Each structure stands twice: as C-alpha cells, then as structure tokens.
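input
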Amino acid sequence: MCQGMLPGAQGRAHGFLEWTWTPVEPLNARSMLDAATSAAAKPVDQPFVERRRRLSPAALDVVNQKVARAYSPIVITGIVRLADFTLLSLVGIAVYVGYVMPLAGAFSWAYPAEIVAVAVSAVVCFQAADIYQVQLFRGQLRQMTRMISSWSFVFLLFIGISFFAKFGSEISRLWLAAFYFLGLVALICERLVLRSLVRAWARQGRLDRRTIIVGSDRNGEQLVEALNTQEDSDIHVLGVFDDRNDSRALDTCAGARKLGKVDEIVEFARRTRVDLVLFALPISAETRILEMLKKLWVLPVDIRLSAHTNKLRFRPRSYSYLGEVPTLDVFEAPITDWDLVMKWLFDRVVGSLALLAALPVMALVAIAIRLDSPGPVLFRQKRFGFNNERIDVYKFRSMYHHQADPTASKVVTKNDPRVTRVGRFIRKTSLDELPQLFNVVFSGNLSLVGPRPHAVQGKLQSRLFDEAVDGYFARHRVKPGITGWAQINGWRGEIDNEEKIQKRVEFDLYYIENWSVLFDLVILLKTPIALLTKNENAY
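output
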C-alpha cells in the first residue's frame, strides 16, 4: 500500500478492477454511469505495481497533513469588485424606486445612468486606494478608513460635477443623501462578511502559497528568514530540498526541515499541494540550476529564482516580488486564476449540452455492445490525470470481456482479435470515448479539450512513455481532455514508433503554452472533421 496518499484526490491504492455485467435501468446519463460504478469486480490475476519514489519521513509528515483546496487571490479580488459594483447599483436603484419614482410619477433613465456612473467611479476609486488586496480584507481599520474616504470622495466629485454642469437642481438631495449613507452601510456590512470569510479561508490554508525551497545552505536559511519575517505574507514554507549530503547542507533552514533531494520534488508535489518552487541558489550556479530545472519544469507550479543574495542587480521591473524578496520568474503554472474559471465554466456548460445531445447515440451504442458480446457495457481504466494523479476514465467496452486489458499494457493493433465487431466501429469513430463526458460533467477530472489521458502502463515497445520521451510528464500540467490539439492534427490511435509519441507531446505542449477559450472552441469544432479524415491510426 502506498504511503502518504493525497487526501481528497486520487490517493488510493492503484489496483485495477475487471468489471462483470449486472442488469441496468433504462439507459440515461445517470444510470449508465451507475452501471459502471456498481458492477461487481474481481482483481486481475497480476495487478501491476506502480513505480513510486520513496519519500523521507519528514516529507511524509507534510504529505499526510490534510490540505484544503487553494483559492486564487486574483479571482477573490475580482469577485469583490463585481460585488461592490452590484451592491452599490442595487442600493441606488432601490432608493430611486422607493422614493424618487413615486414622487415623479414616471420612470426616468437619468437616475439609473447616474447610479451606474457612481458605482463604476467607486470601484475605480477603491482600486486607486489599493483596497482590493486579500491582505487588507483580513484587517479592519485600514480597509474601512480607505473605503469610507474613497466613497466620500466619489460623492463630493459627483456633487461638484453636478454643480458646474448646472443640473444639480434636477437631482433629489434626499435621494443623494440616502444613496450615500445606505451605500456606506451596505459596503461596511459587505466588508465585515468578507473579513470573516477571508480569515476562515486563511485558517484553512486556502490562501497560502505552499512553497518549497531548493538549497539547504546559508543562502536558503537567509531566504526562509526573509520570507518568515514579512507581515501579512501568504508564503507558507513547507521545507527545503537539497542533493548535497556534506556539511554545506543544513538539516533545517530557519526552522524549515530538509525534506529530501531534488529528484523527490516531483513525487512530493504529486502527493500534496505545492504552489511555488523557489531556488535559493545564486545565479552563478548556472549548471546546477539548469540540471534541476530539467527535472522540475514538468510540474504545474510557479518556479522562481531568488535574487535576495545576488550582487548582480537588474532593473526593478525585471523582478517579481514575494513581499520584499526579489525573484526572477523561470516557469509559470499554466491556466490559472480567471483562465481556470473560464475553462471550468466552458467544460461544465458545453460538456452538459454535449452529454444531453449524445445520450441517444450512447444508448444505441450500449444496446449494440450488449447484443454483440457478453459483458458490461462500460468499463473504467486508470489513466494519467492532472499532475500525474491517477484517475478513472469511463469508456464503452470495445473488447471481449474475458480478453480485456484494464492496464492497457498491450497496444491495440490493426485487426486485433481482442476487439469485437462493434468495438472496431466505435474505436474507429471514437464513439467509445463518449462516456468520458461523465468524467467532464460529474467527476470534473477531465476537460473537453486537453492532452489525451494515456493509460498508466502505456508503452512504446518495452519502454513506458515517460521513459521514451523527455518531458513527457509536462503534458500533465493541465487537466487532460477528451479531444486535443494533437488528435485533430492526426496524432491519435496506435503508438508504434517514437515519432508518434514525440509528436503527441510536442502538440500537447504547444496547446498548453497557447491555451485560450477560443482555442478550445476551435479544437472542439474541428474534432468531428478530424475523426472522419484522420483516423488511419485508430484501430
């Protein structure tokens, strides 16, 4: 049994199950999913043993701690801006509808326009006053004084403009006063609720940037001290990693324990949440840094070089800062903050519509499979997911049940005798992949578009894919998808030579570096055409 399972994720024992058929209810999205998950199972004769790097006891102590999911400060501040605008607009319109409109006897667009202008001006002034910071949301005095000052400035500015434009007599003074005071009360109440929420999230660790330091020497100790002495810092140092075992490598750096060697960071980051890898090595150690980066760039985390001890100084704009500590960006985690929100919405909305549209076809395929050969309609297979986690992917069964290969240790070839008659058709047309819409809509461990999730035992001849291609795991820096950039460019189906797996990785990395919602939409629209015209390798 594996040690240090990641809580709440795919931190389960990695055995595989072979599914037997049980009767199911009339075919629909939920019953088809339940059919797969409720089927009786028996272990395979020789379950594979997954290769996992052993971690040190100190690293396992960190891994075994329960870790909450992180919340993006950028998304939080964006939502607060929207909440401020909405709240002030609603207060102004409520006062107008409740007081001004009954007196005027008719609706006028002038007041709603002025309300929107005031709300927009308030958000702009709050931004100028630097109010939209998660660290400020935790406090009370500084946040409230800046907010009250900014809100008052907006109204003084509005009154001044009204006076000079000579339309002050057309605006109700009582409405203006009520809008100011009720808006201020609403903002204060909103900030009090926000303060309690942010403090609760901080206690849960959702706002922490979980950081590991590379370099367990005097430089590393100085860096940890500099990070720990900063007020209102969101940096949480988990520990340090270093390859050296001599006297230069400290067992602790300013209280941060040495967790292991650099080679163990990838496995460590797979088992627990890591947001930032920070090198404490001097820039002059170029060779060592490059060797380590070749191992770590596959991680979906930010990687930076600390410049706190460097004598060579660049322009201030060349640095990004962790509080007062200057750093140089090397790699950034792909698809974060609002991009991640947009992709999540795209997957859920478009995926739900696609699932509803595909249900009749899926029902026909399920009936055909059941009539063609005995066994379950659906099966699930272990695949690589985000950050190399193992996920269960649903597929229509395309092989004879007694010859099923749940680990995908043997590649399906042309005229493979294990594949059924219906199986050949659904594999050629990729209809066997349709149940993966369940993963997108219900499980959330797949995207509609992304690098295809390969089987964990997928091989090129006798070598596993990650052994055959350098940087293979870098394609797992984002969530895998049902379709992808490599697939619509013809790189799908059997992998029988090195070029095919290299091209898949090359196209997947291009997708990750150039992602956008529009790019996802283009790939999705081109997928049906690619299935019809570029299916020569699909068996």
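quick obs: The first strand starts at residue 17 and ends at 19.
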